[in-house]
Amino acid sequence: MHSFSFRMPADACNAHLHIIDPAFPNDGKAEAQAGTVETYRLLAEELSLPRAVFVQAKPFGKDNACLVDAIARFGAENARGIAVVDASVTDQELERLHAAGVRGLRFSVWNPNNAVVSFEDCLPLSRRVKDLGWNMQLHMSAAQIAARADEIRQIPCRVVFDHMGRLDPALGISDPAYPFIQEMIDTGRAYVKLSGPYLNTLTGKPWEDASATARAIAAFAPERVVWGSDFPHVTEKVKPSEEELTALIADWLPTERARELALAENPRELYGF
Predict the structure, then answer these.
(1) pTM for the predicted model, two decimal places
(2) Is the CB of residue 77 less than 8 Å from the CB of residue 45?
(3) Is the confidence at residue 1, as pLDDT, over 70?
(4) DSSP assignment string, 171-240
(5) What kind of fold does domain 13-271 have according to CATH?
């Protein structure tokens, strides 16, 4: 067990990570990006993170087999999944994914060059999964979020802004998209993932600019944030350790109550643990 400068709440959840098992059919990149359930389980035990939300990884496109397997292998009572599908998905498949532990859909359109799905499918799909209690997880740049604000407002289920809304690191919470994210939070339907400091930085490690943004969002809406490590950090040539990313929790969530909310209560509410 690792000892941090804070006490990890019981049932603490890593609400954003990817399982990339090259044993499953993929686009050829899974081998280089591998991060298996077995590898992650050891880290989770060491860091006192018994719960996990696995997010479908790019190498698998819209084939959610690795995701479903990961939930089952980690233990369905402590794992949930965020799948990737398009509008052609059948209702039967959505029901099957729900039974397997999936609780949301991800639209990662931040980089249009490698996007697996189109944002055009988000609103129609959100209406189909609303009664399942799923959320729509949006990985978009702040500029994309601002441009799509009218459509995002219409999403009838919960909305989760990935990686702190990808606000411009030079602007942080002065980014023009931030008031809209706050507006969505104030509806009670939106959450923000405090994750990926290395995606939200100009200064680099120890990511103080990204940490300032994380602290501000957490202070604004402690009951609407969740935390994730983004294992296995596929965007990074030099991988940060799970330990150093987990240690940031003390800085981003400086009170015991804030940590209890972000790591235990909010994930329970959002993902149905």
Answers:
(1) 0.97
(2) no
(3) no
(4) TGGGSTTHHHHHHHHHTT-EEEEE--GGGS-SS-TT-HHHHHHHHHHHHH-GGGEEE---TT-TT-SSPP
(5) TIM Barrel (3.20.20)
